[in-house]
Each structure stands twice: as structure tokens, then as C-alpha cells.
Amino acid sequence: xxxxxxxxxxxxxxxxxxxxxxxxxxxxxxxxxxxxxxxxxxxxxxxxxxxxxxxxxxxxxxxxxxxxxxxxxxxxxxxxxxxxxxxxxxxxxxxxxxxxxxxxxxxxxxxxxxxxxxxxxxxxxxxxxxxxxxxxxxxxxxxxxxxxxxxxxxxxxxxxxxxxxxxxxxxxxxxxxxxxxxxxxxxxxxxxxxxxxxxxxxxxxxxxxxxxxxxxxxxxxxxxxxxxxxxxxxxxxxxxx
Length: 241
Ligand code: CNA
Known about the structure:
- Helices cover 29% and strands 18% of the residues.
- By secondary structure, the chain is an alpha/beta fold.
- The protein has a domain at 1-31 and 79-120 and 166-241: Rossmann fold.
- Strands 3-2-1-7-8-9 form a six-stranded parallel beta sheet, sandwiched between helices. It has a three-stranded antiparallel beta sheet with strand order 5-4-6.
- The chain is globular.
- The structure holds carba-nicotinamide-adenine-dinucleotide.
- Residues 22-24, 26-28, 31, 33-36, 39, 102-105, 120, 189-191, 193-194, 213-216, 231-232 line the site of carba-nicotinamide-adenine-dinucleotide.
- Carba-nicotinamide-adenine-dinucleotide binds next to loops.
């Protein structure tokens, strides 16, 4: 099994690193992932979590969507952990060109990362589905039931990609551009089971290296140059540049 020291060597030898991450990155910050034993998909709700996070559920059961969303998807007190902070440091040092994330929690930006490509949107942004007026996360937290637009009364929707919804085209292009121009891709805290996001790592050039930091096995382990099955925060806290 790979070690943080080996990852450190790979980072030092690389000239352009991209990080591709998922919910596991924020688990040490206290935000549950989906597919771990403690994840949301293993908890009992009236409807399956995947159903409640679908576009049709948002449209037809908006009140229940917001019950689930406020209680299980919003963590306003969560703070960046060692992984978020080290990635921001690597970018500042000119080593890392982008963080491509499936996360919606805004913790990479809170840690200081600038080029964050959010494949699935962000809970920080919300908008009126009728007039488009933007609303901050605080508006969702301060209101009860279905949040409505102050100007037109329209239903407000989080700028989060729900199941059945397409990913934004420019965001896909940016992610693919960054991955296809790096010489080291670090994949971390993701089961690589949500598509199309997981397929973007296939744009990594053949000459580039692939490192995976994930507690459980992923479908890309066999093609990786390094696989570390440890907590992502402890691995990144050992990286020194
Ligand atoms: P997932 O399918 O739940 O997989 C998470 C992976 O992280 C699993 O393979 C775990 O083994 C691994 N993992 C958990 N804890 C750690 C840790 N401390 N160190 C290393 N690895 C760990 O989540 P994915 O991101 O792969 O799936 C994509 C979904 C999850 C996206 O659509 C996200 O929007 C969604 N999601 C995001 C958040 C968030 O923004 N923080 C939280 C929950 C779900």
C-alpha cells in the first residue's frame, strides 16, 4: 500500500498537479458522505436519499425536499480540514493548477483555493426559479418550509446539480481542460461511482501519473501509479513542499 511520503515525492516531481475529489474530502470536517457505512445512503428515510435529491422530487415534493436538504445537506459550521488547507497551499505555491470537486460545500474556497471547478454546484449559491434573483446560503437557513423569492414569490432552488439534471457545459470543459493538461492527478475521497463526473479522469494524458487517496477501493485503483488507503486529512497533513 502506498504512503504519504511516496505521494510527497510525486508532488515534488510534478510540475502541474490537479486534484479530483469527492465527499470523502469533507468527512473529516464532519460532513457525511453518501456511500460509506456512516453515509447518507445507509440511513433510513421515508424516501431513498437519491430520490429526495432528484429534480422530479424537488419539483413535486418541494417541501419534503427542503426538509431533507436543510437537515442532511447543509453544514454551515463545518470548517476546512488539513486536506482542503494543503491543497490551497499547493495552489499558492504554484504546484497545483485546479481542484475539480464533486462536493457542494464550499470548503475548498473557505480554505483559500481559487481555481475550484464545482462539477455539482454549490449550496452557497441559490436562485429564484422564476426571476433568477440570487440568494445566499443564509437565506435558506433563515427561512422555513419552501424558500420563496422576496421580489416575485418564485420558488428558490439551490445551485446544486440534482439527479436527472445535466452538468453545466462550461464546467465540464474546464474540468476536462485541467485534467488533460496536468502531469499528476490526485484523486481523493471519492467512490468514483457518480457519472459523468467520474469519467473525466479518463482525460488524464498517458504520460501523466495518477495517485488515489481513498479509504475504500475504487474502479481506478488498478490503473493508478499509487494507491493510499488512509484518511485524506492525515495523508495531506504529511505533505511538505
Ligand atoms: P461517495 O460515493 O459517498 O464516496 C465517498 C468516498 O470517500 C468513499 O469511497 C469513502 O471510502 C471515501 N472516504 C470517506 N471518508 C474518507 C476519508 N476520511 N479519507 C479518504 N477517503 C474517505 O461520494 P462521491 O463524492 O464519490 O460521490 C459524489 C456525490 C457525493 C456528489 O454528487 C456530491 O455532491 C455528493 N456529496 C457531497 C458532499 C459534500 O459536498 N461534502 C457530501 C455528501 C455527498
